Amino acid sequence: MKTSRPYPAAIVSPKGEVSIRSGHPWVYHTEITPPQPAPENGSLVDLISRQGRYLGTGFWNEHSKIRVRILSQNANDRFDEAFWERRLRYAWQYRKTVLAPEDLTACRLIFGEADQLPGLTVDRFGDILVAQTLSLGLERVKGVLFPALRRVLEEDGAAVRGIYERNDVAIRRLEGLEEGKGFFPLEGLPEPESTLTQITENGIRYQVDFENGQKTGFFLDQKFNRRAVALLARGKRVLDCFTHTGSFALNAAAGGAAQVCAVDVSESAVELARQNARLNGLEGRMEFLAANVFDLLPRLEEAHSQPYDFIILDPPAFTKSRKTVESAARGYKEINLRAMKLLPRGGYLATCSCSHFMTKELFVKMLRAAAHDAGVTLKQIEERQQAPDHPILWNVPETDYLKFYLFQVI
Fold first, then answer.
1. Residue 48's pLDDT band (cuts 50, 70, 90)
2. How many CB atoms lie within 10 A of CB 13?
3. Does residue 2 carry a pLDDT above 80?
4. Catalytic residue among 107, 261, 352, 354
5. Which of 101, 323, 334, 401 sits most deeply, having the most CB atoms within 10 A of its CB?
6. How far is the C-alpha of 376 from the C-alpha of 347, rounded, in Å?
7. 148: which residues sit within 8 A by CB, 6+ positions away?
8. How high does pLDDT run on average in the chain?
9. Which residues lie below 8 Å from residue 388, measured CB to CB, with a gap of 6+?
10. What count of other Cβ atoms lies within 10 Å of the Cβ of residue 392?
């Protein structure tokens, strides 16, 4: 680079350069030669090719195998408060474009790399924002980011009562960060007294425990898939497996299902689902069961009855690494095979995987094998994915994770 730069320069290997030029924002420890002296973890470094060409600027972290998370490939960018606010405005404007106004009150505001804010997740639950920071670099600038995000929203009439940090995840330790959770201090705002709030999604109200619930407290990525289920549910007897807070079950009941059984292994999840049913006046057509789905489906099959004509499978991620994909595939096949055998001919199946490592190709292969072993044919109604507030970058495969299929089983 011929121009003077304020950041130390790290030399990227040819393999790393190919990845950067293709648009991937991660540089691994095996693809880079560190500057000398070594930069401070969480600080900015320039990335240059072996020929000295500028490739980008990002956060350095020796604690992580992802040695640099790229923020920008524009050499003219200055990483000041205006830069961060501009990124946040882009993210908010995108949501306002792709979501209807009524869907903006419960949505993902920031989706990490897909919003060029690597390692940061922010979900909006009404006037509460829930943030998870998995990048040391962004952890160091959250004192600028969070007040700026509040300002961007409030200027648009979207009130912010508090920002709660859900940093109680082990992956933070891979970045050299401590785990913890609690409200981020915002100037002029008292800390909210409760970590419970209510949201409305698809016209259905939910109680959200953003302190203790899974992830940030509620899974927003299935918003439109729940609507698709509701459209098919009218008059059906529905079994919702892995119900968590009851979202698919509630959408099915609201869509006119004759009967809905919501199942989860967690007693506390089932109780929250039951509370959500009462909140919406739907408890009369719903029942709730705390049970292990892997045990329940074989029991139902052995009973030689067909009590359900619509089964929903929305399991947690069975794999979070490539090493366990084969084991995960066996788990996915087991529940899908059982569901296909349990359904009557002409019944309906909604099935999905939220693991990036369980690729579409692997998931489809599993479904074909399950259908073959069950002796059924799958008539595809729809293939769907995550809601658009969880945008997919085609050059960042990690942002594409949710596979969702609706079938008639014939």
1. very high
2. 16
3. no
4. 354
5. 401
6. 11
7. 81, 84, 85, 88
8. 95
9. 98, 99
10. 16
Distance CA 389, CA 109 (A): 7
- C-alpha span between 257 and 244 (Å, rounded): 19
248 and 216 Cβ atoms separated by less than 8 Å: no
- Phi and psi at residue 309, to the nearest 5°: -115, 10
Instruction: Report d(CA 44, CA 61) in Å as an integer.
Output: 9
Question: Does 241 participate in catalysis according to the annotation?
Answer: no
- Euclidean distance between the first and the last CA atom of the chain, given in angstroms as a whole number: 63
Please report the pLDDT score of residue 304 as a whole number. Answer: 80
If you classify domain 81-194 with CATH, what class do you get? alpha beta
CATH fold of the domain at 221-409: Rossmann fold (3.40.50)
Angle at 168 between CA 166 and CA 169, to 5 degrees: 110
Q: Which residues pair with 132 in a beta bridge?
A: 121
| Phi, psi for 72 (deg, rounded to 5) | -155, 150
Rounded CA separation 407/380 (Å) = 5
Q: Say how many CA atoms lie within 13 Å of 44 toward its Cβ.
A: 17
pLDDT for 273? 94
| H or E stretch covering 407 | strand 403-409
Query: Was domain 9-72 assigned CATH 2.30.130.10?
Result: yes
pLDDT tier, 303 (very low <50, low <70, confident <90, very high otherwise): confident
- Tell me, rounded to whole angstroms, the distance of Cα 46 from its chain centroid: 30
| Residues 63-79: tens digit of each pLDDT | 999 999 999 999 999 99
Which of 268, 265, 224 is CA-nearest to residue 247?
A: 224
Angle between helices 247-254 and 223-232 (to 10 degrees): 40
Contacts of 266 (CB under 8 A, 6+ apart): 244, 290
> Can you give the pLDDT at residue 1?
47
Q: How far apart are CA 410 and CA 400, in angstroms?
A: 30
pLDDT tens for each residue of 235-269: 999 999 999 999 999 999 999 999 999 999 999 99
What one-letter code names the amino acid at 396? V
Residue type, 178: E
pLDDT digits (tens, 9 = 90+) for 372-382: 999 999 999 99
217, pLDDT greater than 60: yes
Contact criterion met (CB below 8 Å) for 195 and 166:
no
